[in-house]
Write a structure and sequence with these properties.
7 strands; 261 residues; single chain; alpha+beta
């Protein structure tokens, strides 16, 4: 009898130990998950920056760091023409939408110079600035990839104001690592017919951005027409010229926005 009681007590003790161990393990796991959620909330806000950083992380995983930041504007434009995001609902009263493309000039060489960890920190700061200004100017981020953004606005003036504030905010950024962002803006019909109008406007906006230099905001002739008589938009356009944009017939008018005033 004593032996049976001792065996029963031993079994109960073992069960209690296993149960206690499982409780401790579960408690540790819960604490880890809670800490993980708190870290994600504090590091990856605002919401727009969260999306941009996660998409970038996915690209880095799939392509490597150098591959993730190559030809961002061209790749986003190609995606937009294939996927056809719904720009019609963003259009203004005239059925047109302003499309803004941006990316960091020389991002691949910058990444190589400062290393992956520092570059990802710079990229997160850049993305936070862009998404904040887009929200302030009623824009909509259509797509991000690497350091590139495709953004839509109902009005050309909104897009230009947003571009100016992005450049100014990045210019005020205190860091030993300087970044120069090139921005291109085009304004055109959001309605596509025969798979032509929509695709052409996306391509034109991307080509304008690709023509810009780091720190430059370059706008198309259609944007110039829209903002020419906007008295609230106190900005000067400089270096107006006609250019040939790759893949597009005829010459296109472009001008730079003097934002450093």
């Amino acid at each position: 009898m004593a032996t049976a009681e001792a065996a029963a007590i031993l079994v109960l003790f073992i069960v209690w130990q296993v149960s206690a161990s499982r409780r401790r393990s579960l408690k540790r796991r819960v604490n880890e998950l809670e800490r993980g959620r708190r870290r994600r909330r504090s590091v990856l806000s605002p919401e727009g920056a969260v999306k941009a950083v996660w998409e970038t992380a996915s690209l880095v995983r799939d392509k490597g760091v150098s591959g993730a930041f190559r030809s961002s504007i061209s790749e986003i434009a190609n995606w937009a023409q294939v996927e056809r995001p719904d720009l019609i609902r963003l259009a203004g009263d005239d059925g047109c939408v302003a499309i803004l493309f941006s990316d960091i000039e020389g991002s691949t060489s910058l990444n190589d110079r400062i290393g992956d960890k520092s570059f990802m920190r710079v990229l997160a700061q850049h993305n936070a600035v862009v998404t904040k200004e887009v929200g302030r100017h009623q824009g909509h981020v259509i797509k991000t990839q690497g350091d590139g953004f495709m953004i839509a606005f109902g009005e050309a003036a909104q897009a230009v104001r947003c571009a100016v504030e992005i450049e100014r905010a990045l210019g005020r950024r205190r860091s030993t690592t300087q970044i120069l962002v090139r921005i291109g803006v085009h304004y055109g019909s959001a309605v596509h017919r025969d798979n032509d109008i929509f695709g052409r406007n996306v391509a034109l906006a991307a080509r304008v951005a690709g023509l810009a230099e780091g720190g430059e905001i370059l706008v198309s002739g259609d944007v110039i027409e829209q903002i020419a008589h906007d008295e609230e938009l106190d900005l000067m356009l400089t270096d107006p010229r006609l250019v040939q944009l790759r893949g597009l017939a005829g010459e296109q008018a472009v001008a730079s926005v003097d934002w450093a005033v």
